[in-house]
Amino acid sequence: VQLQASGGGMVQAGGSLRLSCAASGRTFGSYDTGWFRQAPGKEREFVAGISWSGGSTDYANSVKGRFTISRANAENTVYLQMDSLKPEDTAVYYCAANSRGWYGDDEWRYAYWGQGTLVTVSS
Fold first, then answer.
1. β-strand 45-50 against 32-38: which pairing, if any?
2. HEC profile for the chain?
3. CA–CA distance from 13 to each of 2, 30, 55, 100 (Å)?
4. Residues of the chain falling short of pLDDT 50
5. What pLDDT does 100 receive?
6. Do 45 and 60 touch, CB atoms closer than 8 A?
């Protein structure tokens, strides 16, 4: 499966953005999906994950209550709604997928990765 992340941009602190992860190549509905991010000079970290059905989700503590992950399998797309953005959310955001039933951290479990989209939050 090929993944294409989009929706990044520049926003002021307190603002919102919605990222999209569009899949092609195979039926996306059978893949668990996660969002990761990498800030300048830092390691990539888990942000949020969602099961293939959309029935289960997981979030990093740093984004709980501010970010919401969802999916529309009929559209082969996973979304990350980001509200109350902070400057520390500035990073390149990547979507990733796997067919192993995993939607948490441990990025090594994800076999497929998108190219990343940049989110910049100014203070």
1. antiparallel
2. CEEEEECCEEEECCCCEEEEEEEECCCHHHCEEEEEEECCCCCCEEEEEECCCCCCEEECCCCCCCEEEEEEHHHCEEEEEECCCCHHHCEEEEEEEECCCCCCCCHHHCCEECCCEEEEEEC
3. 32, 35, 30, 36
4. none
5. 86
6. yes
